[in-house]
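Subject: sequence -> structure tokens, single chain

Hey, anyone have a minute? Need the predicted structure for the following. Not urgent.
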Amino acid sequence: MTQFSRSWRRASASIAVAATGALGVGLSAAPAFAHTPNWSVTCSEVSLNLTAYGNSDKNTVTVTVDGKDLLPTENFRNDFSKKLDLPAHKSEVTVRLVVKAADGDQFNKDETKTAPVCEGEETPPEPTPPQESAPEPSAPEETPEATPGEDTPAPEAPTPAGEASTSAAAVPSSQPSPAGDDLAETGASSSTPLIAGAAGVVLVAGAGIMWASRKRRSAQG
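Reply:
Had a minute. Here:
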């Protein structure tokens, strides 16, 4: 074997060792730049676990809920782990994660997830207003029937306004009361004057008889 052949073999072996070493270094360095953006969303919180983004402080992460910042843009180096509380909500909300890698846009992450409503926070259904029922028609009043043999009193006619009621007081009559009424009130009779006249005549007649008797006696004596 010539010296040239030996030298060539040694050079080939060195190249192979160097290539193997370089490959090993590359494989060992690969996990350091795996860029693993793990995250999850529940009804009440957002969990972030970003790993293997390199030692550059140019990596950034941002989280928004329905367009509003839950985690304003924040820089991190290699790893980032955090839990964020979601605001109370009565309907589903959209959570967005944006991660920008310092070593290239191909490692960026822009993803959205939906946060459900926690049990007990659902919006209660609006109560249905009670329907108003139409009023029931009232039954007509029954007119009492007149009993046979009984006269139904006629309704009184209303007294015209401005006229005094004549039924309140009786108007005294200008006609003289009958004799019977006067006698009933005074206790005297209508024949009283006749009796008095007859008595007077009797007295006069008696006096004349007495005078004639006396005169006759004196003529005889």
